[in-house]
């Protein structure tokens, strides 16, 4: 029996929009666009591109940027209920985000504990914002991911775990490659189709719950735990 392990992206997945892109559109000079395009085309690493984008922003904007993100960000429908469902069934769940601590933590407060969240850190002590990378690539990844989702998955995964990755963007592609099932939307969905990865499309977290409930490995694990069907 394989125990499910659920890994979920934040920006554009838990939230309805990409908060880093929203910040750049609102506050950054136009140089950020070329960096973004370089990341999407994979000509620039995620770590380099995102780090350089934030370096375009003065630290003095911290309060304005924080207030802007917390005001405009929206949690995707069904997410709170999805987390409650996973907790009730005893399914391990972690948020693994290329986003920044100053908006990821407050947006998830009261929904999921900090010790189940992996994200980058933003420093505001210098003239411009500096990104710190507490979760770098391990020896098995050389992609300069920034927050390396495959490395975190390898750290969390048990030998026989069935890994489910939920995501939407270029930052989730490498994680999708080392997962058993990817629940995907937008850019990541197209990548999964092109790479031939096992996947299912979702619009909101009601869809994600349904997909999990219909996944054989999840049903088997829930049925066997304590000798009763936990999906009922």
Automatic annotation (TrEMBL):
Pathway(s) where this gene product acts? Amino-acid biosynthesis; L-methionine biosynthesis via salvage pathway; L-methionine from S-methyl-5-thio-alpha-D-ribose 1-phosphate: step 4/6; Amino-acid biosynthesis; L-serine biosynthesis; L-serine from 3-phospho-D-glycerate: step 3/3
Please name the InterPro entries in this protein's record: HAD-like_SerB, HAD-like_sf, HAD-SF_hydro_IB_MtnX, HAD_hydro_PyrdxlP_Pase-like, HAD_sf
Task: Name the needed cofactors.
Answer: Mg(2+)
Q: Which reaction does it catalyse?
A: O-phospho-L-serine + H2O = L-serine + phosphate; 2-hydroxy-5-methylsulfanyl-3-oxopent-1-enyl phosphate + H2O = 1,2-dihydroxy-5-(methylsulfanyl)pent-1-en-3-one + phosphate; O-phospho-D-serine + H2O = D-serine + phosphate
rRNA-binding keyword on record:
no
Keyword annotations of the record: Amino-acid biosynthesis, Hydrolase, Magnesium, Metal-binding, Methionine biosynthesis, Serine biosynthesis
Q: Pfam families, per this entry?
A: HAD (PF12710)
Instruction: Please state the Enzyme Commission number of this protein.
Output: 3.1.3.87
Q: Which PANTHER family match?
A: PHOSPHOSERINE PHOSPHATASE
What does this protein do, in the record's words? Dephosphorylates 2-hydroxy-3-keto-5-methylthiopentenyl-1-phosphate (HK-MTPenyl-1-P) yielding 1,2-dihydroxy-3-keto-5-methylthiopentene (DHK-MTPene).
Family designation: Belongs to the HAD-like hydrolase superfamily. SerB family. Belongs to the HAD-like hydrolase superfamily. MtnX family.
Full protein name: 2-hydroxy-3-keto-5-methylthiopentenyl-1-phosphate phosphatase
Q: Which organism is it from?
A: Bacillus haynesii
Name of the gene this protein is made from: mtnX
């Amino acid at each position: 029996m394989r125990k499910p392990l659920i890994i979920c992206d934040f920006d554009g997945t838990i939230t309805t929009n990409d908060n880093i892109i929203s910040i750049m559109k609102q506050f950054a000079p136009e140089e950020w666009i070329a960096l973004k395009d370089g990341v999407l085309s994979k000509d620039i690493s995620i770590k380099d591109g995102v780090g350089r984008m934030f370096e375009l922003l003065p630290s003095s904007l911290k309060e304005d940027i924080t207030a802007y993100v917390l005001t405009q960000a929206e949690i995707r429908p069904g997410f709170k209920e999805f987390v409650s469902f996973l907790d009730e069934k005893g399914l391990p769940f972690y948020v693994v985000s290329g986003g920044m601590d100053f908006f990821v933590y407050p947006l998830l407060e009261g929904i999921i504990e900090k010790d189940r969240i992996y994200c980058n850190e933003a420093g505001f002590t210098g003239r411009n914002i500096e990104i710190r990378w507490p979760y770098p690539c391990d020896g098995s990844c050389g992609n300069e991911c920034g927050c390396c989702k495959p490395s975190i998955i390898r750290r969390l995964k048990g030998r026989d775990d069935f890994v489910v990755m939920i995501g939407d963007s270029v930052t989730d592609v490498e994680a999708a490659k080392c997962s058993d099932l990817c629940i995907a939307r937008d850019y990541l969905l197209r990548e999964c189709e092109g790479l031939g990865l096992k996947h299912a499309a979702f619009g909101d977290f009601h869809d994600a719950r349904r997909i999990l409930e219909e996944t054989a490995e999840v049903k088997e694990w829930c049925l066997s735990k304590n000798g009763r069907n936990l999906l009922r």
